[in-house]
Specification:
462 residues, 22% strand, 6-stranded mixed beta sheet
Length: 462
């Protein structure tokens, strides 16, 4: 008897993918995960991974996944629940005071000058599975600001597991189980009520446990030297966070493109921090999708229009715009231009030729992105320094190592800076390499860093 497992999902995530048949994370058989996650997740053609081991063992493992976030305890020690920070009215978490050494190291700097952006593809999952490695990276690089995208990756959902059972020479499709999974790191608030997108949910035992795990992680070195602001999603996969060293308190933090502090963007896509001489914008730009639909092409066009209006409106002060921008501007920004240009979803071809291809690499997206840079007088920090294609370290996203997207890579995570800051760019680097996702810390995106030189006292950047 042979089993092949496939799941009919409303949404999916990387952890659950390990139990599925799809070699990519956006199987067409699953109602298209693409519309729930970044453009970096391409579409696969067929489920083609066999389940090894008994069906019973698989089902036990699948049902246990609902509680896969467990506090990590040291051997021989009793577990002590951490003290959680009290609710804050300004949407950020006050970490314990930074050490004297940290303050001494930064007392010569007036403003942040070293930055990191990272699409963690579920921040809580990274805390659970990849925190020691990411902690070491942060300790080594010592950034002043850390911008995170995708705090959570899946909705509360119901799913069924369908199996093909081989009887003689005939395959019979049977339902072999069902279950539910829930949002990780959702915004605070009871079901059916308005949510507080600046606070983590903690009104259930599972959400309290998850919040405790997260707070323990960010209350330990080196993260205890940072304050953190959250913009969380109500029930979807997005959400952003901004960590700023305590010695560089921003003048103002807001959570929408209209710069209203109390208002958050849907899905928590924006955090804007203002300092004395510049602003930093952390965004998780929406996926373009594959079709002319409200939740795909139309949504991305509206987003690009709002970004254009924003960068023109705030030209009074230099801008650093970072995050997963979900677009590869030029052919040099993808590993295989012809592959991405000809990509299709289930053979569908959009009516407008400029909308054809891999989300993030359609001609229409690339043109709009170029127009935003031009009208906003903005520069791509990485491309300003690196003019040539780098097949080893020149991409921030890498496709699933198994399947047709193996080795297919894109640069969709950026630091975009105002032209006035261009001459201060010291370094801008992608910190992952190779098709085996070295330096990605469990995500499918690697961290990207930017370093600026300190502004001279007599310089005029505003």
């Amino acid at each position: 008897m042979t089993f092949m497992i496939h799941s009919k999902l409303v949404s999916s995530n990387r952890a659950f993918d390990s139990a599925l048949t799809c070699t990519n994370l956006a199987c067409k058989e699953c109602e298209c995960r693409e519309k729930y996650t970044s453009s970096s997740f391409p579409n696969c053609e067929k489920p083609n991974r066999s389940l090894l081991g008994s069906l019973r063992e698989f089902w036990i493992g699948a049902t246990k996944m609902k509680r896969f976030f467990q506090p990590i305890q040291k051997e021989g020690s009793s577990f002590k629940k951490p003290t959680l920070s009290p609710p804050s009215t300004n949407n950020h978490t006050q970490n314990p005071e930074a050490s004297g050494d940290d303050n001494n190291n930064n007392n010569k700097k007036k403003e942040p000058s070293k930055f990191v952006t990272w699409n963690a593809n579920s921040f809580l999952l990274r805390v659970k599975n990849n925190w020691p490695e990411f902690t070491k990276f942060v300790e080594t690089l010592d950034p002043d600001v850390i911008a995170i995208q995708v705090l959570l990756t899946f909705d509360s959902l119901s799913f069924s597991i369908m199996g093909f059972v081989l009887f003689g020479k005939s395959l019979t499709l049977v339902n072999v189980g069902s279950g539910e999974m829930e949002v990780r790191m959702p915004a605070a608030g009871a079901k059916g009520t308005p949510k507080n997108q600046g606070e983590l949910k903690d009104d259930t035992s599972s959400s309290r446990e998850e919040k405790q795990i997260l707070m323990r992680a960010i209350s330990s070195p080196p993260f205890k030297s940072y304050d953190v602001w959250w913009s969380l999603s109500d029930s979807k996969y997005a959400g952003t966070a901004l960590f700023v060293k305590k010695c560089f308190p921003p003048k103002k933090v807001s959570f929408s493109l209209d710069r209203t502090a109390s208002k958050h963007e849907p899905d928590g896509r924006v955090i804007l921090a203002e300092f004395e001489s510049f602003r930093i914008l952390n965004t998780y730009s929406p996926n373009n999708g594959w079709k002319e639909e409200e939740n795909a092409f139309q949504r991305r066009r509206k987003w690009d229009k709002r970004i254009m209006e924003f960068v023109i409106e705030i030209s009074d002060k230099p801008l650093i715009w970072c995050g997963d921008l979900n677009v590869s501007h030029e052919e040099i920004d993808v590993s295989h231009p012809e592959f991405f240009s000809s990509a299709k979803l289930n053979g569908y071809i959009p009516p407008n030729k400029e909308d054809c291809g891999q989300p993030g690499f359609t001609l229409s997206e690339r043109k709009r992105f170029g127009a935003i840079l031009k009208e906003g007088m903005l520069a791509d920090a990485y491309r300003f320094l690196q003019k040539e294609k780098d097949m080893e370290r020149g991409f921030s996203w890498s496709g699933n190592p198994v399947g047709k997207y193996r080795g297919k890579r894109m640069r969709i995570d950026y630091f975009i800076v105002s032209e006035k800051l261009k001459d201060r760019i010291v370094a801008c680097e992608m910190h992952g390499q190779g098709i085996e996702l070295q330096g990605f810390y469990g995500s499918d995106h690697c961290p990207v860093s930017l370093e600026l030189s300190q502004a001279s006292p007599d310089s005029d950047q505003s």
